[in-house]
Amino acid sequence: GAVVSQHPSRVICKSGTSVKIECRSLDFQATTMFWYRQFPKQSLMLMATSNEGSKATYEQGVEKDKFLINHASLTLSTLTVTSAHPEDSSFYICSAYTGTAGYTFGSGTRLTVV
Amino acid sequence: DAKTTQPTSMDCAEGRAANLPCNHSTISGNEYVYWYRQIHSQGPQYIIHGLKNNETNEMASLIITEDRKSSTLILPHATLRDTAVYYCIVRVDRDDKIIFGKGTRLHILP
User: Fold this and answer.
1) Does A105 touch chain B (CB under 8 A)?
2) Those residues with Cβ within 8 angstroms of residue A82's Cβ, 6 or more apart along the chain or in another chain
3) How far is CA A92 from the centre of its chain?
4) Pairing relation of β-strands A45-51 and B55-56?
5) Sheet holding B18-23, edge to edge
6) pLDDT value at B109 more than 70
7) Is A92 near chain B, with CB under 8 Å?
8) Which of B:27-86 have CB within 8 Å of A?
């Protein structure tokens, strides 16, 4: 079936640094990908919609200058958390529409900012 | 906002059928009902989806009421590995964003 590969699975970074998370569609092309954030014991919260070749669409309250999204090809979207702070520590998940199975999700990235 | 309401948590004995309800009383005629589950610290996993008719696959069955205002996900023989949070979602277009509600935390009891 369709697979979305997300890397890294875990990352620890220092406050003030930037972290890039990659989301790849392995055997299909994804013109649209979605980025979510999930805090402990909470549901997934949609951050932004990533569109290949154009600017991402951010949900209300999500800082676009802090969470940079790039979707330069039909198989790769990246989320860069800039100037990370401890409150950015969270579980980040990407997804893409695959057709018959609806949306496929990546395995997630656990970000810890120290 | 999510268009669905689900019980916060449910218990089910191992080997029994787990029936997870979902209310989507404001669903539109062209919106599908999707079910996903999330096992701890993993990305959500697709289970099943349907529009009007009941659906069955190797994982589960989906029963949608005739008025489409509610549905039930059935895991026929629950195992400990089915312990997860189950999300019921309605959506329309292929690129329509998915908004997650709080889901149902299913505990399978040995």
Assistant:
1) yes
2) A18, A65, A66, A67, A68
3) 6
4) unpaired
5) B18-23, B70-75, B61-64, B55-56
6) yes
7) no
8) 32, 34, 36, 38, 41-46, 49, 85
Q: Which two tokens stand for residue B22?
A: 């979902």
The neighbouring-strand residues paired with A32 are A51
The answer to whether the Cβ–Cβ distance between A95 and B43 falls below 8 Å is: yes
In this predicted model, which residue has the larger pLDDT, B15 or A32?
B15
For residue B87, the cross-strand partners are B36
Measured between alpha carbons, how far is A25 from A42 in angstroms, rounded to an integer? 26
Token couple for A71? 């979707």
Average pLDDT over residues B13-21: 97
Q: Contact B46/A103, CB-based, under 8 Å?
A: yes
Residue pair B101/B91 in contact (Cβ under 8 Å)? The answer is no
How do strand A109-113 and strand A10-13 relate by DSSP bridges? parallel
Dump pLDDT digits (tens) for A22-53: 999 998 888 889 999 999 999 999 999 998 88
Residues of B within 8 A of A93 (CB-CB) are 43-44
Strand order through the sheet with B9-13: B9-13, B104-109, B84-91, B32-38, B45-50
